[in-house]
Amino acid sequence: MIAPQLFYNALLTMLAVPALPLAGLALAARPRYRLGLSQRLGFVPAEVRESFQSRQPLWVHAPSVGESLATRPFLRELKRCYPASPLLFSTLTPTAQVTVQQQLPEADAVIYFPLDHPLCIWPVLHQLAPAAFFFSETEMWPNFLLMLAQRRIPTFLVSGRFSARAQARYRWLSPLFHPVFRSLTHCCMQTSDDAERLVAAGAHAEQVTVTGNFKMDGVHESSAQGVAILQDAGLASRPLLIGASTHPGEEEFLLQVFRRLQREVPQLLLLLAPRHPQRFAEVARLLTNGHYRFVARSQPLPTDTATADVFLLDTLGELASFYPAATATFVGGSLVKGPGGHSVVEPALAHTPVLCGPHTHNFTSVVEQLQQAGGGIIVRTTDDCYQRLLPFFRDPQKARAAGQHAYSVVQQGQGAVARTMTIIQGALSAYPNNGGQLSG
């Protein structure tokens, strides 16, 4: 074990001891924190072990709901190319666990990702013995990835991002992460900028390829579901503005814009989809205190549904199915610093113009392409947002044209899964220790 990794593990252990009392209080006060705790500590559920028996799984990891759903076309291709290999899926959050279990039937088992400490990782790898590991976005866990390399388990970063912010952060920890980057079998990156930054951070250039973003290949079989839900509520015929994956402050922003737009477009409907489920009740109180007539997706439909101002989407995994019904979509996490913006790809796939705030470092390249094509708009103030949205609701043809421009950007970027699978199949053929299981 190299010195930086030894120091990292010693630091983790030393910090864990004084943190135990605080962790115990947090677990007692917040039941949500207890979800999956045993799995995070390295205990694999018996049913997971038994479902694999002597078969080595292909392990796919995605941290949250959006990233998990984006892997679906990739999971399908893994199933098609390696039918003898079961698929194990891991996430970090309880909401992602529920989403994967309900919406990704391609996954044969779902677990929580273990804490990045050798004592938590070793039993998981020993019991599951994955044939290969695939992780998306920028989920770099040094102990886990180095232990995979020590076991000669092929490891792939897929639909990978490596932002300028991530590059700066990892630069401070270069002695620890430099060997991690070099241990990866291959890195399939979303853009050339992502690839260049990862190579500059230490990855081997010959093991980094630009393959694209899995979200560009997204296919929403349930795309009619949102329309059907609105029809059942008597709301399908009304012009719709979606506030997607919103954070604190963004709902108030959109409600101000909505009130102004409503004077010009009286039938306008606003759909609010808060990013985090723990904020559903908070947003419902905001609407109640603001005297908005609203319908909550999780509740039975009231008799006066058709007169609602706002549709509160307080459920998980359904947002993408509403995009085809929208005249325009605002994507959240972009007005406030920190989140870096959420995916603009799904609304673009649904042929809807996409608006967002100025903080979109998670999707810099795609947002720039959408702007250049005329399908994406950056807004900073409520007046700016109002002025940019009003023409779409006055003239739906303008909205359709902008939506088509947005879709064209996504269409040009499709094929990421196929390009990624070509690289994976070539790389896995060089690993003879899988007993022929990964022969395709």
Summarize the structure.
The protein has 440 residues and is α/β, with parallel strands linked by helices.
Question: Can you give a write-up of this model?
Answer:
The chain is of the alpha/beta class. It folds into 2 domains: 197 residues, Rossmann fold (3-Layer(aba) Sandwich), CATH 3.40.50.11720; 190 residues, Rossmann fold, CATH 3.40.50.2000. Helices cover 48% and strands 14% of the residues. The chain has 20 helices and 14 strands. The strands form 2 sheets. The chain has a 7-stranded parallel beta sheet, with helices on both faces. The chain is globular and about 65 Å long. It starts with a helix and ends in a 12-residue tail after the last helix. The model has no long low-confidence stretch (mean pLDDT 89).
Assign the structural class, choosing from mainly alpha, mainly beta, alpha/beta, alpha+beta, or little secondary structure. alpha/beta
The tally of beta strands, per DSSP, is 14
- Mean pLDDT comes to 89
CATH topology of the largest domain: Rossmann fold
Terminal CA distance reads 34 Å
Question: Order of strands across the widest beta sheet?
Answer: 3-2-1-4-5-6-7
The largest pleated sheet is described as: 7 strands, parallel
Sequence stretches where pLDDT stays below 50 over 5 or more residues? none
Helical content stands at 40-55%
Continuous helix count: 20
Q: What is the rounded Rg? A: 23 Å
CATH architecture term of the largest domain: 3-Layer(aba) Sandwich
CATH class of the largest domain: Alpha Beta
Q: Globular, elongated, flat, extended or rod-shaped: what is the shape?
A: globular
Q: How many domains is the backbone divided into?
A: 2
Percentage of residues in strands: 5-15%
The oligomeric status of these chains comes to: single chain
Q: What is the CATH H-level superfamily of the largest domain?
A: 3-Deoxy-D-manno-octulosonic-acid transferase, N-terminal domain
